[in-house]
Design goal:
Elements (H helix, E strand, L loop, with lengths): L3 H10 L17 E4 L5 E3 L1 H17 L6 E4 L6 H11 L2 E3 L19 E4 L6 H7 L6 E5 L10 E4 L7 H16 L18 H18 L1 H4 L1 H13 L1
Parallel strand pairs: 3-4, 3-5, 5-6, 6-7
Antiparallel strand pairs: 1-2
Helix pairs in contact: 3-5
C-alpha cells in the first residue's frame, strides 16, 4: 500500500486512533488495545483498508453525482463542502428531511450514500435499508454496524478527525483519478476552519459601528476640545 505510512501518520496526528470508553461487540475486531483510563485504541491499518475499499466503490461508478454525502456536523462542514467540490459528490449539509431517498415526488436516485455520523443520523440508515443502497459510514467505537456495508472505524468526536479524513480521501482520489476536471493540488488549510476570516469579519463590524457613531472613536470630542482652546 503506497499511501499507508502518510495516511496513518495523519490519522494519528488527528487522534483518529482514540475511541470511546464504550465499545460495540461488532467493533471489537477493529480494536488494538484498551488504555488504563478505559479508552479503546483503534487499529488504523484495518481502518485504512476500509478507506481503500470504500474508495474502490466510489471509483467504480462513472458519474459521481450519483453519490450522496450526509454530514450535519458544524465543525466538519467546511471540509465536507470542499470534499464535495473536488469529487463532484452531492452533499446534504443541513437538517436531513426524511423521504428524500424514497419519496416519489422528491426522488433522487443514488448509487451509494456516505454518512458521516450514523449515530446521529439514524433516519438516513432506516430509510436506506429498504432501498438496498450501499452505505459508507464513519463510525466510532460505540456505533452499531447494523445495515452498514462499509464502516470506517475512526474517532468522530474530535474537531480535526473528520476534516483530516475528508482530506485523506480527497487526496487519494486525486492521485488515483488523474483527470482534467480534478484538481491535483490541494492545501490542507482549505479543509480546516479559518479563524482569520472570523476575526476580519469582527473587525469590519466594529469599524462600521465606529463610522455610524463618531463618539465611539473619540475624534469628535478631541476636535471639539481643540476648537475650544483656539476660541479661548
Amino acid at each position: 500500500m503506497y499511501f499507508s505510512k502518510k495516511v496513518i501518520s495523519l490519522l494519528i496526528f488527528s487522534q483518529n486512533n482514540l475511541g470511546n470508553q464504550s465499545c460495540n461487540f461488532r467493533i471489537m475486531r477493529y480494536i488494538h488495545k484498551k488504555t488504563k483510563y478505559g479508552y479503546h485504541m483503534i487499529n488504523l491499518l484495518k481502518s485504512y483498508r476500509k478507506i481503500m475499499y470504500s474508495l474502490s466503490v466510489i471509483l467504480v461508478q462513472p458519474n459521481l453525482n450519483n453519490i450522496a454525502l450526509v454530514d450535519v456536523k458544524t465543525f466538519s462542514q467546511l471540509a465536507a463542502k470542499k470534499f464535495c467540490k473536488i469529487t463532484g459528490i452531492k452533499g446534504f449539509f443541513k437538517n436531513f428531511y426524511s423521504g428524500s431517498f424514497t419519496n416519489n415526488k422528491k426522488l433522487e436516485i443514488f448509487k451509494t450514500v456516505i454518512v458521516a455520523e450514523p449515530k446521529a443520523e439514524t433516519r438516513v440508515i432506516h430509510e436506506l435499508k429498504s432501498t438496498h443502497i450501499p452505505i459508507i459510514a464513519f463510525c466510532n467505537t460505540d456505533n452499531s454496524l447494523r445495515y452498514l456495508d462499509f464502516p470506517i472505524i475512526l474517532n468522530t468526536n474530535s474537531k480535526f478527525s473528520s476534516t483530516i479524513l475528508y482530506y485523506v480521501i480527497a487526496k487519494i482520489y486525486t492521485v488515483l483519478m488523474k483527470k482534467k476536471h480534478v484538481r491535483t493540488r490541494m492545501r490542507f488549510k482549505d479543509f480546516m476552519v479559518e479563524k482569520k476570516i472570523k476575526k476580519q469579519n469582527i473587525k469590519k463590524k466594529n469599524l462600521r459601528r465606529r463610522d455610524s457613531n463618531p463618539s465611539l472613536t473619540g475624534e469628535s470630542h478631541y476636535i471639539g476640545h481643540r476648537t475650544l482652546k483656539i476660541i479661548r
